[in-house]
Structure formats: C-alpha cells, structure tokens
Design a protein that fits this description.
With 345 residues, the protein is an alpha/beta fold. The protein has a domain of 202 residues: Rossmann fold (3-Layer(aba) Sandwich), CATH 3.40.50.620. The chain is 46% helix and 9% strand. The chain has a six-stranded mixed β-sheet, with helices on both faces. Helix 3 links the parallel strand 4 and strand 5. Helix 2 packs across helix 7. The chain is globular and about 70 Å long.
Length: 345
C-alpha cells in the first residue's frame, strides 16, 4: 500500500526529520501519457539492461533489502526511481523501494511537485523538511558556490533518516558521466586518483550507498527523461553559481567526445580495470618486496592479470552481459536467476 507521509517542519531544536505517517491516501491514477514509441521502448530496455548489469556486477540489491531512493526532482533521480520500479515489478526477489526527498527550504521550491508525482505512482515516500538553505547562506560568502556544503548537509539528513527507518541500501542517481567527471576533478584539483564508487560503505560504517546508474550515460538519461515527461525541478533555486571546476571538466569531456566519440566510455572502462603495480602508490603495491618475489619465482602482478583475463573471457562469452540482481548468499541464487530473466523480459 502506498503511504503518503505528513511533512513536519523543523522548529527550534528540531531538524525536521520527524516525519509522522498518516493514513495512506487512496492510490491516484498514474499521469496519462501517450503510448511510448518503439524508440522509447528500446531506450527503456537499454537502461534496464545497464542498471541490471550494474546491480549484478557490484551486488547492489539483495533479497529483503529496503532501498531508499533519494529523489531531488532532477532527471537523474527520476530515471533511477523509474527503472528500479520497472525492475521490481518483474522480480520475484523481495525488496522494497521508498522515495525520500529533502525539502531544504530554498526560495521558490515547488513543494507540491514531488508529493503529487509520487502519489500518482502509488510509490511509498517521505518528504523531509530541514532549512539547510539558511545555514548555507549564513556560512558561505556571497558569490561562492554553495553546492559542497549543501550536499554534505543533505547527505547527513538522509543518512540519519535511513538509520532511523531500517534502510539497508541508499540509492543515489549518479551516472557514468558523473563518475568520470569526479575522477578528473580529483586528478586535476586534488592530486588523487579517485572517482565515485558504484557501491560503498559510508565513512561511519552504518550505511551502504549504491549508484545503480553507474553504467548509464547522461545523454541517455536526458533522452529518457524527455520521453517520460518527468516534472523536473531545476537545481538553481538557491541562486548559487554552478561548480566552475566541474563545469570546466564537463566542457572538456564534451569536446573530447565530439572529436573522439566513445572516449568517455573508454575512460570509464579504465576505471574498472586498474593495475596498481603500474602506478606509484606503495600502499597498493609492494614495490619493496619485488626482490623477494623474484627470488621466490612469483611474477609481479600475475594474479590480477589472470583474473582480468578470466573476466574478459566471460564477457566475450556473453555470461557477464545478463542483467540481474546479484546474490549475496548461496540461498539467494535460485531467486536471483529469476530476476536475471525478468530484467531481460
């Protein structure tokens, strides 16, 4: 049953996270849409396949999971929710979805858009209210980008809600291009080889965060959002400047893509095929122990390369192309096989 939740404004000493459920509202009919074109159906199948493969490759969702889909009102999070709902409908594996949005009290924020949309779908949801906007405006100097602090405050509120409501996985809408852009941001401005992990454990060790759109390009998401006519909420209500460094990296990648189509995909493939012994991080590879390995007759890095060759062989055989929800225990294997078939249906 769909449960609409009453939003609780944060007052003195409150953070606005005390969402109090009321009786579930009757399900409303879904918004009327024209029948999807053949192209739109192919695009949806393509996205289902990529999301299913990411879920399988990284073991993102297992039987019994309670998945919180963080919904901002942008094209990425709408697409994430839509594709996960599609996969869930055809999956015999039991996992639940709940959409959560944080109303940060930005001026002009259309507070009715997401509740109306989610109620029309019959999706369980929570709307949280927390005035992070005032905090950010007070702390960040005028003219500086507010996105970093805003994001941290939002993440803290969502993590707290997840801990209080038994959430086992937190799903974010970052896509392949976000991951590649973050890699270059860290490379150019942070001096680190670091991107966004498709699946990670939060710093406090309490939450598993997943990014099911990790294999999906932003271009395909934009096309899908247009075909589905999502009620997009712009991310410029706060009046903050766009992150200038990220914008520069985005322009660089777009120029590369025009000159060399497929380059972003190649870079992302490289992020999935790392050979630490050919970098220079002594924390990841035992350079000082090479003489000991030579005397023992063990080639440096043989095991990782053998594993990579095995993965390439599986990919060539087609075994790694079947999208699914990956088993995390032996008992889940049979139900997961059904999910793999359902994701291809």
């Amino acid at each position: 049953m769909s449960g609409e939740l009453e939003r609780q404004p944060g007052g003195a000493g409150q953070d606005g996270l005390n969402a109090r459920p009321r009786h579930a509202a009757p399900s409303r009919p879904a918004p009327s849409r024209t029948a999807p074109s053949r192209t739109a159906k192919r695009l949806e199948a393509h996205l289902r396949g990529l999301v299913g493969k990411a879920i399988e490759d990284y073991g993102m969702i297992a039987d019994g999971d309670r998945v919180m889909v963080c919904l901002s009102g942008g094209k990425d999070s709408y697409t994430l929710l839509d594709i996960l709902l599609s996969l869930k409908r055809s999956a015999p594996v039991e996992f639940s979805l709940i959409a959560v949005n944080l109303d940060q009290k930005q001026p002009g924020f259309p507070a009715h858009v997401l509740p109306d949309y989610l109620a029309s779908l019959g999706v369980p949801y929570h709307i949280l209210e927390q005035d992070t906007y005032s905090v950010v405006k007070r702390v960040i100097p005028e003219g500086k980008t507010m996105c970093g602090l805003c994001s941290r405050l939002r993440r803290g509120a969502l993590y707290r809600f997840a801990a209080e409501h038994g959430i086992t996985k937190i799903a974010l809408g970052h896509h392949r291009d976000d991951i590649v852009e973050t890699f270059f941001l860290n490379l150019f401005f942070g001096g680190r080889l670091k991107a966004m992990a498709p699946k990670l454990l939060s710093d406090d060790g309490r939450h598993i965060v997943i990014r099911p759109l990790a294999y999906v390009s932003e271009r395909d998401i934009a096309r899908y959002a247009r075909s589905r006519a999502f009620p997009i909420i712009p991310c410029n209500l706060c009046g903050s400047q766009e992150n200038l460094q990220r914008a520069a990296v985005k322009r660089m990648l777009a120029a590369w893509e025009r000159e060399h189509p497929g380059r972003t995909e190649t870079i992302f493939a490289a992020l999935r095929s790392v050979e630490p012994e050919h970098l220079a991080d002594a924390r990841l590879h035992d350079f000082k122990g090479l003489e000991r390995r030579r005397l023992a007759g063990r080639p440096s890095g043989a095991a990782p390369r053998d594993a990579a060759r095995g993965a390439e062989a599986r990919e060539a055989s087609g075994a790694a192309r079947i999208p699914s929800i990956a088993p995390e225990t032996h008992a889940e294997e049979q139900s997961v096989a059904h999910v793999r078939a359902a994701a291809l249906a």
